[in-house]
Structure formats: structure tokens, C-alpha cells
Design a protein that fits this description.
Family: Belongs to the OpgD/OpgG family.
CATH topology of the largest domain: Beta-galactosidase, Chain A, domain 5
CATH class of the largest domain: Mainly Beta
Protein name: Glucans biosynthesis protein G
Subcellular location: Periplasm
Pfam families: MdoG
Number of domains: 2
Largest sheet: 16 strands, mixed
Number of helices: 7
Shape: globular
Distance between the termini: 12 Å
Helix content: under 10%
Keywords: Periplasm, Signal
Strand content: 35-45%
Length: 548
């Protein structure tokens, strides 16, 4: 099924070229041929060489060199990075792989008492290719050599014997004093494909971000770019942030990424991504986010029997349009693959949000869903014409990420011209509402007595709480073709202090016998609702895809 939601205003497409191809080619000419990575993943498989264990050579490094590396890599064929990790390590179970722990006393910069430390991930299980990790200091970099004594293998006694003489890592994590001044907690992790996660003060890990999404939910299958090499700038004693650079590679694209990471009450990542095409692609997703939604308060029919009232890492998609309208779309676990496109020229921000932070709504001692973060993407500059896409994949287990959101441009990226996107990722551990007045607190869905679907939407905020019960608050509800709205009512919610909007929706005509056979084959109907007081809009816009 496919539903398209269109914002009311459009803007002109603006160029996003911050680096000309000529400038990069000039840099390549000055630098000469660049060695891409120690694992030589751009060579044919039979000629690949694993990272050298004792590499100590320092080489010049800055972002311009990284961009030149990405360009040069884009001019060569892509080689699938297979055969780098011995099969016994790939055969490890999740629990066995989890037993392989990096020794905290071996953390990079541990003895120097710097404000950040780095711990490394061991290859194995699903992490089937090696990445090079380099440390940058004073404009020069050197590769971190693999050493099995860095790790405690637990009960995996035979694993060290399976490791080749020359090996590498699967990724890394960043530690720092995010919760207390003296104790170093985990702040962020880069592990697997182009995935990265972070936490804010007092929070736990939840949803993930990615460097790039390519052809997600396309008929020919999704392409998963991966970060093949990292450069981490060594901090000083007074550093408040940590800079990480990454080289992205895939069958169709390469990219040069820079992340400036600051941990705190809100953990932020300032991202600069310069992309190069190897070949044209059908769809790219900029700043992709990945999360899980199994069921929630708006799930009227569950796929599984579970004692927990709700199970989700995120409960809604929030978008800020160029018109300054705030837009809330509750997440759902659909019966079939669902793609929603929300027109968002020059989008001002979007994110997957966890608004419900009440433990009683989850009742899960281990998962701590009430502490899962929200992740907000705020573009820098003008991204031009495009839309935010939300992909919802059916699932019956909470171990699968089934929600994807990203921004995608209307026009295909041009070949031979680097494209740069800048944005900030903000990881929040507490309630994230952001709209200036009222926000959606809850969405409840059930069957009405006359055979329709009944919705109850709770809006809340300090401003709404100040309104008296007699205030002439009006609910504005609209829907697309294929359905009608009845029994609409807005009233003060005396239990929360906010306001509740209720209504019933029906198909605009009774289903035929054929419709009943082809259940759920009709296109979904777009519903929107918000609250007004006289001429003042009180809340963000609530949106839902109703299936007749």
C-alpha cells in the first residue's frame, strides 16, 4: 500500500555543491594515487590483503584528503568485502559473540586521562568484514593494529586460534563522562554497515542512524553501504567533542563523512557527508533512521500475545516543514509493507520520536523502552525539493527493526558531481515535543458500535493545560477520498490537563462482496487533525493512514 501526504508549500531547488569536481581532481593530482585501506577492498577478491598488524606508518590526513579518497574510490569497481573473517567466527551465536569483550584497561587514551576513550569491536557473527581504524594527530594518521590480547574471549577458548596473523576490527565505541564527571559511560557506537547509535545523559541505546540508505523498499532489493575505514581525531585534555571521519563504500556510491560528536543531556552529532555516484540509483535516503515498533496504544489488533502493554523503540514520526507546520504521524506495524511519502521541500527537521516515557506503559524490566532515545535530524542549509519517506515493515518480533525514515531528493543525484549534505543529529533521552504549543501525547484506536473506526487523540502541553473547560476549542479533522468523518468532539481531559479529540471514520461506501474477498486492497485514506482556538492553531497536525 502507498499513501502520499503533501505539504502545502513548495520551494525552488537550490544547488548543494560545496566542492567542485575540478577541485577534487586537482587535489588528487597533487597527492598522487591514494592507498584506500589496508584491506584493499576495491581489489579483486583473490588479491585482497588483510590489514597489516604492525603498521606504524604515519600519513597525512584531513577532510580534503578524505574527499579525494572517496572520489578515487568511486572511479574503481566495487568489490564485495567477503572472505576477510574466518568462518568459525561467523558461526558464533549472538551470545557467544557478546562474550568477546574489549578489555577496558586497553581503551585508547586510557592512561592519558583524556576526556574520551575508544574501545573496539571484534569481528564475528554478522559482522563479516573488517574495517580499518586510524588515529589522527597533528594532521597525520596511523592505523590501530589488531592485537588479540585487547579482548577477553570468555568461554570462546578456540576463537583466538582461528584469528589470522593479520586482522582488523568490526567497529568501535566512544566512552566519556556523560553521566558523572569521573566515570566514563558509553556515548556512541559505530558498528555494522553504516550504522551508528548514541545515547544522551540518563538514557539507553534504542534506535539507530545510518550514513546512507540506497534503494530501500525497491523491487530489486536494498543496497547497504558500509563504512570501510575510520579516522578518529585524538582529543586534547580540554576537548568537549570528538571528531570521527569515515569512508563510505557501496556498489553504487562512495562518500566522505565527518561526525563531530558532543555527549551530554542532548548528545549531538554535526554531520558533513559528501557523496559520489558510481552509477545511477533509483532512490537515496539522506540521514536515514531505523527503529522498531511492534505494538502500541494505537494497535487495535495485535499480532502476538504479550503481557507487555506496549513494545516499541519509537512511537511516531515528527516533521517540521518549511511552512513551520509541525506534523506528527504515529507509527504502526502494518499487515503488509507500507510506504508513506510526506512532501517536504527544504525540510526543516524530522525524526523518530519516543514520546511515551512511562514505565507502566511497557512493564519491561530489561528492555527499558521508557528510556529509549528520540532522534531528531536538523538540516543545515537548503536541501531543496524532496520528501520524507516512512517505511513500515510487518513484524511479529521485537528483535527486528521494522521502521525506516529518511529524506530523499526529488531529482536523481548527478553522476560526476559531488553532493554535500550537512545536518545535525540530536539524541534526546527525555520527552521531545518541540512544537511551540500542543503536541500529540497519545493515539487510541478501536471499533465503533456502528462498524467504523473510533479515534481518540490526546493533545497536551502547558499552554493547553491553561485553557478552561469552557474554552471554545475546535477540532479540525479532514480525510481524503474513500472515507467520511462523523461524531467529532473536542473536550478538556480532566485527567491529564490537556484536550482530547474524538471522531469516527467510515468508508464512504459499503464494501462489496469482492471488496471483502480482497480485504486491505483498497488504498489507505489520509486523515489529519489539529486543535484551534478562534483563529489560533493550538497544536501540531496529527496524521494517520486509515485502511478502509
Amino acid at each position: 500500500m502507498y499513501s502520499k501526504n503533501i505539504s502545502s508549500k513548495h520551494i525552488s531547488l537550490h544547488a548543494r555543491y560545496v566542492l567542485s569536481l575540478a577541485a577534487v581532481l586537482s587535489l588528487l593530482t597533487i597527492l598522487g594515487p591514494l592507498s584506500m585501506t589496508a584491506s584493499a577492498q576495491d581489489e579483486p577478491q583473490s588479491q585482497q590483503q588483510p590489514p597489516q598488524q604492525t603498521e606504524e606508518t604515519e600519513t597525512p590526513f584531513n577532510r580534503e584528503i578524505l574527499v579525494a579518497k572517496a572520489l578515487e574510490l568511486s572511479l574503481s569497481p566495487f568489490e564485495i568485502p567477503q572472505g576477510q573473517v574466518p568462518q568459525p567466527l561467523l558461526d558464533l551465536s549472538y551470545d557467544a559473540w557478546r562474550e568477546i569483550q574489549y578489555r577496558p584497561e586497553r581503551a585508547l587514551w586510557k592512561k592519558e586521562r583524556l576526556p574520551f576513550e575508544i574501545q573496539l569491536f571484534h569481528p564475528g557473527m554478522i559482522y563479516d568484514h573488517l574495517v580499518d581504524i586510524n588515529i589522527v594527530k597533528d594532521g597525520h594518521s596511523h592505523r590501530v593494529a589488531f592485537d588479540s590480547t585487547m579482548f577477553d574471549y570468555g568461554s570462546n577458548h578456540a576463537v583466538p586460534e582461528q584469528i589470522p596473523d593479520h586482522f582488523g576490527f568490526a567497529g568501535f565505541r566512544i566512552h566519556g563522562p556523560i553521566n558523572t564527571p569521573k566515570y566514563f559511560d558509553e556515548i556512541a557506537a559505530f558498528l555494522g554497515a553504516s550504522y551508528l547509535r548514541a545515547v544522551a545523559k540518563g538514557g539507553v541505546y534504542g534506535l539507530s542512524a545510518r550514513g546512507l540508505a540506497v534503494d530501500t523498499a525497491q523491487p530489486d532489493g536494498e543496497e547497504f553501504p558500509y563504512f570501510r575505514e575510520y579516522w578518529i581525531e585524538k582529543p586534547t585534555r580540554h576537548s568537549t567533542n570528538l571528531t570521527v571521519h569515515a569512508l563510505l563504500d557501496s556498489r553504487s556510491m562512495t562518500g566522505a563523512y565527518t561526525f563531530v560528536i558532543t555527549g551530554g543531556k542532548t548528545t549531538t552529532m554535526d554531520v558533513t557527508a559528501t557523496l559520489f555516484l558510481r552509477k545511477s540509483v533509483s532512490k537515496i535516503g539522506i540521514a536515514p533512521l531505523t527503529s522498531m515498533f511492534l505494538f502500541g496504544e494505537n494497535t487495535d489488533t495485535r499480532k502476538v500475545r504479550d503481557f507487555r502493554p506496549e513494545v516499541h523503540d519509537s512511537d511516531g514520526l515528527l516533521i517540521k516543514f518549511e511552512s513551520q507546520e509541525w506534523f506528527w504521524h504515529p507509527l504502526n506495524n502494518p499487515e503488509t509493507l507500507q510506504i508513506d511519502a510526506f512532501k517536504a521541500d527544504n525540510v526543516q527537521g524530522f525524526g523518530l520520536i519516543q514520546r511515551d516515557h512511562d514505565f507502566e506503559h511497557y512493564q519491561d524490566f530489561e528492555a527499558n523502552y521508557e528510556r529509549r532515545p528520540s532522534l531528531w535530524v536538523e538540516p543545515r542549509g537548503n536541501w531543496g525539493r524532496g520528501h520524507v519517506e516512512l517505511i513500515s515493515i510487518p513484524t511479529n518480533q521485537d528483535i527486528h527493526d521494522n521502521i525506516v525514515a529518511f529524506w530523499t531528493p526529488d531529482e536523481p543525484l548527478p553522476e560526476g558531481v559531488p553532493q554535500t549534505y550537512e545536518y545535525q543529529l540530536r539524541w534526546y533521552s527525555g520527552r521531545f515535543t518541540h512544537p511551540p504549543l500542543g503536541y500529540v501525547e497519545s493515539t487510541w484506536v478501536g471499533d465503533s458500535e456502528d462498524g467504523g473506526k473510533q479515534f481518540a487523540i490526546d493533545f497536551n502541553s502547558k499552554a493547553l493545560g491553561m485553557l478552561k473547560e469552557s474554552s471554545p476549542v475546535l477540532g479540525i479533522v479532514t480525510c481524503g477520498k474513500g472515507a467520511v468523518i462523523t461524531d467529532q468532539n473536542a473536550q478538556k481531559n480532566m485527567h491529564t490537563g490537556g484536550w482530547r479529540l474524538t471522531f469516527v471514520i467510515h468508508p464512504d461506501e459499503k464494501p462489496s462482496a469482492l471488496d471483502k474477498v480482497l480485504l486491505n486492497r483498497k488504498p489507505p485514506v489520509d486523515i489529519r487533525a489539529f486543535l484551534k482556538l478562534n483563529e489560533t492553531t493550538l497544536t501540531e497536525t496529527w496524521n494517520y493512514a486509515y485502511q478502509p
